[in-house]
Amino acid sequence: MNVYDSARMADVLRPLGYEPADGPETADMVILNTCHIRDRAAEKVFSELGRLRVVKEARAQAGLSTVLAVAGCVAQAEGAEILARAPYVDIVLGPQTYHRLPEMVARAARAGGLPGGVVETDFPPEQKFDHLPDATGPQLPGGVTAFLTVQEGCDKFCSFCVVPYTRGAEASRPAASVLAEAARMVAGGVRELTLLGQNVNAYHGDGPDGRTWGLARLMQALADIPGLLRLRYTTSHPRDMDPTLIEAHRDLPQLMPFLHLPVQSGSDRMLASMNRGHTADDYRRLVDRLRRARPDLALSSDFIVGHPGETDADHAATLRLIGEIGFAQAYSFRYSPRPGTPAAGAPGRVADAVAGGRLQQVQALIRQQQDRYNRNSVGAAMPVLFTGRGRRPGQLSGRSPYLQAVHADAPESLIGTVAPVTITEMLTNSLTATLDPAANPLLERACA
Ligand code: SAH
Ligand code: SF4
Q1: What is the model's pTM?
Q2: Among residues 39, 95, 288, 354, which is most buried (max CB within 10 A)?
Q3: Which of 302, 310, 338 to mutate to test the pocket of ligand 1 (most atoms within 8 A of CB)?
Q4: In angstroms, what is the span from residue 13 Cα to ligand 2's centroid?
């Protein structure tokens, strides 16, 4: 979502005359868009700021001013404390206020670099989406894939998570605004859209028909946009996987057979103490229903190890669940206490060495499953969306329906199209494929 937000900040600043720069040394303004989800992400902000300070001072000596802004969830959580720790920062803005950037830049300019800084970390009554200029297209120039935020914030308050405090209450964009933005992106060359939300499947936006639309209804309407070949959504919560969404996986050809469905733990005791609102068996049943709807569905997930109170038995239950489900890929994290969240003050802290050992076990099992999944793809025929040039000349890179990175020798004219390939080889983090002759008129001629 930060990738999407950063692109939208660029959209907001473009009318003021700002354009993307090659790096901080040549930039009149630098915005550091930050993440607060785990401690490591938050700490990076201050080391990065230290580096930007050096750049800002060097530019000042050359008579150039630099506006330095900190945006995103660290800005939201720490607010004015950032200015105390890094007084050379000019603007601190949260994820819900960036539509007000032009005004903040003007205020910072009036302050003329004097200490103080502009801080905008309230949750304004107006929705930023109503005040942003139209998105200009994919986040990357010439991009074939793009993100589009449809829902933001969260009311679920899992014990460990800062999102409800930093992104704020759950809110959905009206369907018409999403559809218009998607149509503009497709006109700009986007062929695959990933709909974003902290709980994207909790989406409940106002529909143009006066009804409230869920995510499945929204995706049906998006699928009608000519040229939009593929849809994905992330991140979804097991509790919001409603029957219409499961049916969409069966009925909507544009919806890709890949689902990121975080479960966090395989232990009911942990799931309860995390306030996830479901059991491990609920998750198993949900996966069964999804696989009945879409037998080739590839699953991904998130796991937290070392949440307060986690025992060896809880950890074993997580390994068991992973073993039973079989993931195509997954992310796992060592629990990181976040200030202000219920778990941060909870008893039963798990020793670092124990949590580290558990993390290694989870990661080894996931790696095994991922390798097995990719190995099983070798020999398979599947449609690949070519997204750009590959590493070698003559090669393109693309994405399988199951979100695997695929490389194949293919003409550049195929960028932005979906073409059939056969997977020939598994590498560590990607697959190699050959283009089916039928997909490539040049090849066909060569074969003839
Ligand atoms: N809304 C999604 C997850 C959003 S946060 C959901 O409910 O599943 C992305 C992932 O970061 C989470 O799934 C979790 O695995 C991880 N995470 C969040 N807070 C964390 C913390 N305090 N320590 C470690 N991992 C955390
Ligand atoms: Fe955080 Fe997701 Fe839980 Fe919301 S549902 S509090 S975003 S982990």
Answers
A1: 0.94
A2: 95
A3: 302
A4: 31
